[in-house]
Specification:
428 residues; alpha/beta; Rossmann fold; N-(1-d-carboxylethyl)-l-norvaline Dehydrogenase, domain 2; 3 domains; six-stranded parallel beta sheet; 17 helices; 14 strands; NAD
């Protein structure tokens, strides 16, 4: 099929490349001209594992084309709309362009995280200029991709939400996605509004689990309870399960955080409101300051002129992005107290350099152990695999004081304390 994917989002680039890889002829229509050159060279706009190579492969195959222009033709138009949440105006302009071809059948697949009800609104716009004989349908196919594993999430989905009220559109979508839906039928069909709301509800539920566990971890500290034992006990209950129960120093990520805020805004705009979701967001922001508060207390509020080693900057392991990452709040708090930092991350250093700018109170280190030299304590923020089993003897020898603050609970407190470390975890 000839398909169009409109947008510069992570979802747009993954969708375009994945569809092209299965034999479709795909036009990636860019809504932001400044990104054209990078994509034309096969460089993704998103620092996503494997995406650059995958994207370049499809460009070289000729099945994927990038353009700043899109003119609908008389043949059936199948358009994936994968724009950022703040690009509703751009989406409307595209729909008006599609609507201007009244005899053309149009299938609009809305992947964008717009307010609930937007897909129905876009379909109404499509139908304003359509002839009675033309099919004009908009469906919702919410973006469920996880940053850091977006390619696998699209090509091997656990489930897909399809908001659709048209038999013709459903048949078309099933054919387009057939290569990714072979093991079992992963497509859950519902109304467009239900699909849009389900996407936001999933994100809100996951964020609630994370924040609830962080609240429990903070309580565990005061009760002298090891939250790790509690986590395993709670996760063993089949009614709950073990996913998203790991306490830590807060969650980040552009899409995840943005979707939670979008759900909160939707609830507020509707007049319903949600004290729970507001508290979830508040807990997460407080949690980003957890390591700083523990450090502040341990050093009796005297952090000025001290140097701290930080391992991990990315908002999650596997990514080189720092959108809303806990490390940003931590750095700002340390700098405000006159402290210096030495930091290492396997992938996120370029993004952090760009964010921090020119400063003399941060040193970017080539290895984790370089960050330890003459530091007063080690703070672990992102649980990269190469941080899990370090040389603790070298850590102890390098630090001025053998102090470790483990923001992801990846170390064994009893073992570290037996080795002479002062250890602080989250609820441990």
């Amino acid at each position: 099929m000839h398909l169009v994917v409109a947008g510069s989002s992570l979802s747009a680039q993954v969708t375009a490349a994945a569809l092209a890889s299965t034999g479709h002829q795909v036009l990636l229509y860019l809504d932001q001209p400044q990104h054209f050159h990078s994509l034309e060279q096969g460089r993704s706009l998103w620092r996503e594992p494997g995406l650059d190579e995958f994207f370049s492969e499809q460009l070289n195959s000729g099945r994927l084309e990038i353009s700043l222009n899109y003119t609908p033709t008389a043949s059936t138009q199948r358009v994936f709309l994968a724009m950022a949440p703040n690009q509703q105006d751009e989406a409307v302009e595209l729909i008006k362009k599609l609507a201007a071809t009244p005899e053309t059948d149009v299938l609009l697949i809305n992947q964008s995280t717009f307010p609930v009800g937007t897909t129905e609104y876009l379909e109404a716009l499509l139908q304003t200029a359509g002839k009675a004989s033309a099919k004009r349908v908009a469906v919702s196919l919410p973006d469920l991709l996880q940053e850091g594993s977006a390619l696998i999430g699209f090509t091997r989905p656990n489930h897909l939400l399809l908001g659709c009220s048209s038999d013709w559109a459903e048949k078309e979508i099933r054919e387009i996605l057939r290569p990714f839906n072979r093991r079992r039928d992963n497509l859950m069909v519902m109304t467009p509004r239900e699909a849009e709301f389900t996407k936001l509800a999933i994100t809100g539920m996951l964020a609630t689990r994370l924040s609830f566990m962080n609240d429990l971890a903070n309580l565990a500290d005061s009760l002298q309870v090891d939250i790790e034992q509690v986590r395993q006990g709670v996760g063993a209950d089949q009614r709950i399960g073990e996913h998203y129960l790991y306490p830590g120093c807060g969650f980040g990520g552009l899409s995840f955080s943005r979707d939670v805020m979008s759900l909160a805004h939707s609830l507020e705009s509707s007049g319903v409101g949600s004290d729970l979701l507001e508290e979830v967001l508040a807990i997460n922001e407080r949690q980003k300051e957890l390591l700083f508060r523990k450090l502040w207390k341990y050093f009796n509020t005297q952090l000025q002129d001290k140097t701290f080693a930080i391992w991990g900057a990315a908002f999650k392991p596997g990514s080189d992005r720092i959108d809303n990452a806990p490390v940003l709040r931590l750095l700002e708090a340390l700098w405000a107290q006159g402290a210096k930092v030495k930091i290492h991350d396997p992938k996120a250093m370029p993004a952090l350099r760009e964010w921090a700018g020119q400063r003399n109170d941060i040193e970017f280190c080539d290895t984790p152990y370089d960050a330890l030299k003459e530091a007063d304590a080690l703070l672990l923020v992102t649980e990269w695999k190469n941080y899990w089993t370090p040389d603790f003897a070298q850590i102890k020898a390098s630090l001025k004081q053998p102090v470790i603050l483990d923001g992801r609970n990846i170390y064994d407190p009893n073992y570290l304390r037996s080795q002479g470390f002062t250890y602080f975890g989250v609820g441990r």
